């Protein structure tokens, strides 16, 4: 059975410059029954940090999903372990207090935010979070020399020991310990923190009945038929490389659920001069997915071809500054 780790010693908060608007951070990790919109949270770990990134408190809970726990071989939480755990509505108030008035920090933050937001929505509540920060995006903006986007790689870069991967409390601890030096690097180097507004699931119309028609790949209830897009006027300049901007003409494929309406996401990419590809091939510049380990056809092809992969949050950041095509 997985259990919380002993309380770590918390250093006294440092004096010095604060965190801009004075808000602290809630570094969060959740383990879930799966990656889909109907999956449930089964454990949650939260480390509270002050505006300077110093740890001030932590909290952990198991959550009874009242259903099959999913991939036990990953998270180690069996039905027997979770049987006596509280349900999400029973821990929602305490969870909310751990998040309130803080920036939510997570590794692949969009995933954690959507899972948390859905659970609050099911309980008839709204998660009290206005902004999130994805450490995958921050690591990219800092141009850290990482081999991939895994938390273990980020931990190794900063010399943080990971005791028990896929344990929500330990993953949150590791992330809290790597976030502080990342925050210091960003501030000393003048790198803006990649803060993203959090839109609650209820604002996206998840529970509304979708009109009849083909399934959409987003969480918005609005359905629009696929439309033929004009051909991209720029030739493909090749693959995107981490640390570089997107370049007009790059072929971008999108797979899986997206928090942003899929049509709107594709519109933004098209308007920026990118080519939206319906499949992944050796010519694909980039795959956008919030589930890089999924078994969708596009994700499998991306792994086979070594196609670069980024999450939705990182893609939205990249769309802010798309470089002009060299031949333009």
From TrEMBL:
What Gene Ontology terms for biological process does this UniProt record contain?
DNA replication
Record's superkingdom?
Bacteria
* One Pfam family from the record: RNase_T
**PROSITE patterns cross-referenced by the UniProt entry:** BRCT
Q: Where is the BRCT domain?
A: 242-321
Q: Write out the ranges of the annotated region (Disordered).
A: 1-24, 210-245
Q: What is this protein called?
A: DNA polymerase III subunit epsilon
Q: Which organism is it from?
A: Kitasatospora phosalacinea
């Amino acid at each position: 059975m997985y259990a919380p780790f002993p309380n770590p010693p918390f250093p006294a908060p440092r004096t010095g410059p604060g965190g801009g608007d004075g808000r602290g951070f809630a570094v969060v990790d959740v383990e879930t029954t799966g990656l889909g919109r109907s999956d449930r949270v089964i454990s949650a770990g939260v480390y509270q940090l002050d505006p300077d990134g110093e740890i001030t408190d932590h909290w952990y809970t198991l959550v009874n999903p009242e259903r099959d726990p999913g991939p036990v071989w990953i998270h180690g939480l069996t039905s027997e372990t979770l049987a006596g755990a509280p349900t999400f509505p029973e821990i929602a108030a305490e969870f909310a207090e751990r998040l309130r008035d803080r920036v939510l920090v997570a590794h692949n933050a969009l995933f954690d935010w959507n899972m948390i937001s859905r659970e609050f929505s099911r309980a008839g509540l709204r998660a009290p979070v206005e902004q999130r920060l994805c450490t995958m995006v921050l690591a990219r903006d800092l141009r850290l020399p990482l081999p991939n986007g895994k938390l273990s790689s980020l931990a190794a870069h900063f010399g943080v020991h990971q005791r028990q991967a896929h344990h929500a409390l330990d993953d949150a601890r590791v992330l809290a310990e790597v976030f502080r030096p990342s925050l210091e690097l960003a501030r000393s180097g003048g790198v803006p923190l990649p803060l993203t507004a959090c839109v609650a699931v209820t604002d996206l119309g998840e529970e509304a009945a979708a009109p009849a028609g083909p399934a959409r790949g987003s969480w918005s209830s609005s359905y629009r038929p696929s439309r033929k897009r004009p051909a991209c006027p720029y030739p493909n300049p090749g693959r995107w490389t981490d640390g570089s901007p997107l370049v007009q003409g790059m072929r971008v494929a999108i797979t899986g659920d997206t928090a942003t309406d899929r049509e709107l996401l594709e519109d933004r990419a098209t308007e920026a001069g990118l080519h939206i590809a319906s499949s992944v091939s050796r010519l694909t510049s980039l795959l956008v997915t919030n589930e890089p380990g999924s078994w969708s056809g596009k994700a499998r092809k991306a792994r086979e071809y070594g196609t670069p992969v980024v999450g939705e949050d990182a893609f939205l950041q990249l769309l802010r500054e798309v470089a002009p095509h060299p031949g333009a």
